[in-house]
Design brief:
Layout lengths: L2 H12 L36 E3 L10 E7 L3 E4 H19 L4 E5 L5 E5 L21 E9 L4 E7 L4 H11 L7 E5 L10 H9 L3 E4 L2 E4 L6 H14 L1
Antiparallel strand pairs: 1-4, 2-7, 2-8, 3-6, 4-7, 5-6, 9-10
Length: 236
């Protein structure tokens, strides 16, 4: 191979190759392929932050919650997750203030994406082996999602309900496929319906536990229940 041809190969290798479109990695075709001691050299995912806003707010502060539900059986790359997170966070910060909401990304990218790099210059067929040994090397991360799975969740005050729905509506366009924005009937990120939460809170049986709660039941020792009731009174 002459020097001119080698120079052409070096220039093509130096030229930055663009990312593949999402259609190359969108479908769940094979088994999950995760990072392990056998699969090394995996690049970090683009998304690094999964909780935004007033993430330490107690459950009683944000009663309204809304979710973005996935409508496809597919793979979502870490790049599109990061893009949706940025879009939703920017809109909510502008409309509700940085402490007026709590947003959470509910799916995590663990599936390793691979690429079999090919030379695209003239005469590259002399140096390549085609589909021989075409397993590919790690190039990124994606998360596998099912139909109806929650992708993003937002909790906020009732006065900001419209802004929360609009933020998730804008964020869903960062994903391939059709997705739905669904309001939750539960109080914030808890497992209690709003009517039941209000009833238990009025009875003094809700104990704050981070962004969640603990419900004081009628079972157990009386001494332990009295301690918990005193804790609830101190919190209120």
């Amino acid at each position: 191979i002459n020097a001119e041809y080698m120079g052409l190969l070096r220039r093509s290798a130096r030229s930055a190759m663009g990312r593949r479109p999402a259609k190359c990695y969108r479908y769940c075709k094979n088994k999950p392929y995760i990072k392990s001691r056998y699969c090394r050299g995996v690049p970090d995912g683009k998304i690094r932050i999964f909780d935004l806003g007033h993430k330490k707010a107690v459950a009683h502060l944000f009663p309204y919650s809304v979710h973005l539900l996935c409508g496809e059986l597919q793979q979502l790359s870490s790049e599109c997750l990061e893009a949706s997170r940025i879009q939703c966070n920017k809109y909510l910060t502008r409309m509700c203030g940085k402490d007026g909401f709590h947003m959470r990304v509910r799916c995590h990218p663990y599936h390793v994406l691979r690429i079999n790099k090919m030379l695209s210059c003239a005469g590259a067929d002399r140096l390549q082996t085609g589909m021989r040994g075409a397993f590919g090397k790690p190039t990124g991360l994606a998360c596998r999602v099912k139909i109806g799975q929650v992708l993003l969740s937002v909790r906020t005050k009732d006065v900001h309900a419209q802004h929360a729905r609009e933020a998730l509506r804008r964020a869903k366009y960062k994903f391939a496929g059709a997705h739905k924005v669904a309001e939750s009937r539960k109080w914030g990120f808890t497992n209690l319906l709003r009517a039941k939460y209000e009833k238990l809170h009025a009875a003094g049986r809700i104990l704050p536990d981070g962004v969640g709660i603990k419900v004081i039941t009628n079972r157990g020792k009386i001494e332990d229940k009295l301690k918990l009731l005193k804790t609830v009174e101190s919190c209120t």
